[in-house]
Amino acid sequence: MKPRSAVDLHLHSTASDGTLSPAALVAHVAARGVRLMALTDHDTVAGIAEAAAAAREHGIGFVAGVEISVSWRGRSLHLLGLGVDPGAQTLARGLAGQESLRQERAERIAGRLDAKGAPGTLALDKLRARGVIPTRMHFARELVALGIAQDPGAAFERWLGRGRPGHVRAAWPELAEATAWIAAAGGKAAIAHPMRYPLSAGARRELCAEFRACGGHAIEVVTGGGSPAHREQAISLAVRCDLEGSVGSDFHDPAIPWNPPGRLAKLPGSVRPVWRGAPFPGLAADPETE
Questions:
Q1: Average pLDDT, stretch 199-222?
Q2: Are 214 and 179 in contact (CB under 8 A)?
Q3: Rounded to an integer, what distance in angstroms lies between the CA atom of residue 168 and that of residue 125?
Q4: Could you tell me the pLDDT band of residue 1, with boundaries at 50, 70 and 90?
Q5: How many CB atoms lie within 10 A of CB 118?
Q6: Would 259 be classed as within a structural domain?
Q7: Residues 137 and 206 both lie in one domain
Q8: In terms of domains, do 153 and 193 share one?
């Protein structure tokens, strides 16, 4: 078995589409041996203060983060902002725009579901009553609760995935624009789970080259649920494009077994860790060598 990483810089809470509150999430990852974590909710920093306070109580390093939906050559990608100032005005304006896009997309998803006989508007009303910013995962869980799908995976397969009745593309900001938000907030930008996107090897290299040129810092080399082959490809990509590497589970829910925190492989020595130096917290020891 490969040595496990004590770092997890891709985690979600109830501030977006995770199932644990920020404080409960911190307790969960700390109990699993994580020594440095980031909260990276979708297009929001609303859970950062609660999570940071909990991390202090549990004695683990904490990184303020966010996961931003972006567009590159017409494709939707996810960009991590790590070590950001949650109060930075440029980032706040960008995330306010993201919320508006999500709310608009949610209405379109609801309408499309209604048109195909699924209770989209009812699901959206329930989500808004809870005060959440609706994501597709939120819709999937509501369709399960309403008896329309057996589980979230089935909801995506039948209703919400690409090409399904409730799939709606959003006009997310361009990669370079969101990278600039992160830089203005004092953080480092990292491409999340780069091997999940349906890109050719050449397009993936072009993505990383353009990202590096516009101020990007890293790619997520070790990803929850990623195969060893994908990890090796990501290592090669990071080295070739002179990008730092990140480690993240993309954890949302303790009931989902494929990406638990505390089970990730360590970043290989050939890749520079994104968490070394500013803007990351000064730790008594490197979390990977304690």
A1: 97
A2: yes
A3: 18
A4: very low
A5: 23
A6: no
A7: no
A8: no
